[in-house]
Amino acid sequence: MSAQPSPLIIAHAAPSSDACQEALPLLRLPHLEHLLPLLHHTPCPRLPALCHNSPAEHLLAQAWGWNSAFTADGLLPFAAHVAQQRGLPTPAGQGWAFITPCHWDIQTSHLTMAAPELLQLSDDEGEALRQAMLPYFVEDGLSLHALPRSDASAPLQWLACGAALHQLPTASLAVAVGNTIDDYLPRQPQTRSLRRLQNEMQMLLYSHPVNDTRAMQQHRVVNSFWISGTGEWPASSGAPIDVSPTSPPVALHTALQNASQQHDPRAWHDAWLGLDAELIAPLVERCRAGQAVDLYLCGPHKALHLHRTAGESGPHQPLAQRLLRSLPWHTPQPQAVALLQSLL
Asked: What predicted TM-score, i.e. pTM, was given to this entire model?
């Protein structure tokens, strides 16, 4: 029998986008339908309506063994974690953050942010913008470090460090993108300098050559930046300080998140079909072989833990339900759809 497997986390299994929610009843996920009766279902605690980190991010921090004492909502230290991995010291009283160049759509009554990966900024464009912005950040006591992308499709990001970022709750891109961002903008007293810096960068970016070229090519321009990933990484917390995205191994699947944030119901629907065939089908086989399964399905504010241990026979369906399913004229109801709707 196999040992307990690493957790699999599916972000936006139930989408935050209204457009994608309309596609949910049309889903037919045969492998998930077969898997659900074989597993225990344990709800995770619901997050507040204006949570700063998604359920998937909280589960990722939990899977990495981060101490809950320093991983409050909005303070999951993803940026400090990367800085620690890169050997960058954290001066006393200062904090780390990701700085993501982005495009804000300014409406009469609200602001929205396009998914940063849609900018498709090249490394050369990103470095030109960083060099132009760097003196302003330094003047406000913030360093600004280049950061290699995890893959070609990932949004371009930088690492920043400074006193204004210390213990500053911020909303992650997983939460802010695709939503009205007004309620997620930091408004603590320490952010006055950050708001001024953001205004200065908006003026700088308005006439930057990178944006001039992008506008001529009818591409989205960079007109602001987003601050996220803040939170402290205290060595004295008792939490392991050498964890990495592969230790312990955990798989976070974000194809559904990207489609939901881009309000693309067809892409979200097709991404679920792909996950059902490529990810869920092997889990069904694991169950049939008596192996363990550890899967989390995440909605905008809730998550569900689907699990079983090695050698376990799994939950038993009521006799009436099993007999009904055995009838040749019975058409199974899409339990997967009902389950995903319960996560909204």
From this structure: 0.89
